[in-house]
# Entry
Amino acid sequence: MSDEVKRKLLIADDTPANIKVLGEALRHDYKIIVATNGLEVLKIMESGSLPDLILLDVMMPDMDGYETCKRLKANALTAQIPIIFITAKSQEDDEAYGFKLGAVDYITKPISIPILKARVNTHMELKRHRDALVQMARIDGLTGVSNRLGYNDFMDMEWRRACRNNLPISLIMIDIDYFKQYNDSYGHIMGDECLKRVATALASLVRRPGDLVARYGGEEFAAILPDTDRAGVQFIAEKMRKCVESLKIDHCESSVGPHVTVSIGCFSVNPNPGEQPEELASRADKALYSAKKCGRNRVIEADSEGE
# Structure
């Protein structure tokens, strides 16, 4: 199994010999990440390289496993990562405390490799199923792109990353021109087909794994482009406009032309800590409104409005 498809396992232990034993036992099935204390664990999380499961030693210097677990569970981005405590303690009170903090299991020392593998495999499989359910809940059933919930979660994650690393983040808001008239003229079945074709076209232009196209609501779509500046978002937005127009979906009730078109607003920003992603959405939405007001079937970038 290649590293590209292996699920990630973080081993946190202050004893190198323990890390070596655990890593050797599990490296064939999982991509191993290591940390030697709780602070290193938190730094790994801040880097955005989130593991699928954490093996966390209870007794570590500076910040023990319990405190590390508390901080991970208090962060919305890491709260759902399953944690298995590794401990030399076997008292019921210790285990009960760990479960209360949010751990999913305990493995006691000395470690039995077969038991270790069985428990890690079990919780990895549970995580895989849970991830699949979460993913399904974030997909728009009609178009196959992300829904508003998926948009909100992705925006929150990427906004935090942009603030933390001083990176640009861009948003494109797309609205199908005169879609109500399209539905009235061609019927809702054809309207649904139109939405699906437009969504597929938009998604085909967003190829980086870190980008997202979502159905924002009704006939409106959004594209979140992390690490993308003004020039980049304008380029992608114009490609989206041309791509939808090139579909040549008949629209006899449009005042723009004979085919389905879209109006697009976009905005790029390097956010500062304390700023909220709603400002990005607001600016892109205002640009979209201007695009519609100025005749539709065009792209307007928020800064070009002189706001």
Summary: The chain has a mean pLDDT of 92.
